[in-house]
Amino acid sequence: MLIYFIALVLGLVALVFSADWFVDGTASIARNLGVSPLLIGLTIVGFGTSAPEVLVSALASIQGNSGLAIGNAIGSNIANIGLILGGTALIAPLAFHSGLLTRELPVLMVISVFCYVLALDGLTLVDGALMLLALVVFLFWLIRTALVERKKDILAQEVVAEMSGIMSNNKAWLYFSVGLVGLLISSKILVWSAVSIAQAMEVSDLVIGLTIVALGTSLPELAASVSSVLKGEDDLAVGNVIGSNVYNLLAVYSLPALIAPGVVDATVISRDFPVMLGFTGALFILGMGMSKAGNINRWEGSALLSAYLFYQWTLFQSVT
Q1: What is the pLDDT of residues 20-39, one digit of tens each?
Q2: CATH code assigned at 155
Q3: Domain total for the chain?
Q4: Residue whose C-alpha is closest to residue 107's, from 267, 280, 226
């Protein structure tokens, strides 16, 4: 058992560093080819921070561990809002200034409900194709809207500011190559160790996906959000989470449907998806602000974090 936990920790650490190298390398290659920094920030960087979830879920689905893949996608979204935004708000309250951001929130809510409805009668190839199509439509809308408002929207300005660094082509390709290989190897180690732990503890791979794996694959988003808020870039911190959650649902959650379609575990339908929808709904309410500008203060951040910890405790209780 000990060797599995050591492999899990090493796999997670390697996964985080590999994702960072992969994102830096890919973004720099695109920048050197003349791609707009705004497009790089919205697409390559957004997808790159979800690369761990994508590879872990793909490998798990291929190996027949679809529970781990589904748990990783849903658990990561819960961790992104409860742990990452909740914890980040404790460092510094988050204020929502971007009009683009407040338009992304209802889109995320609709996508979350859409994916939940698809899961009710099991995941099929058609469901997977619909999710990928929705991802393409979302990216087209996001890019088009951001380009139109790039000179006046604060989120677009913060994205461009983050893309200001330039790396030489040789160094960029080195980062890209090492990061990609590292992602592939560390994902393989992570899936192997997670499944082994689940079997040794006689718990479902779904629970491991919702807890340890979801937390580990969300670490790139945690690093990005904390870094952004320390720079005073509140909208970028929240934008990272919203973008990641969309990718997790449409790019990561679609993989079990495309690779290993079948019935979704009943507990996902009755417990985990509703919890994810609850966290997403809370973010929607806080972000829209209703009668005032959207924000997440320290008390609200504490509530999100507490709710996340309580959910993790209930998962632990369910297997003891």
Answers
A1: 788 778 777 777 776 666 66
A2: 1.20.1420.30
A3: 1
A4: 280
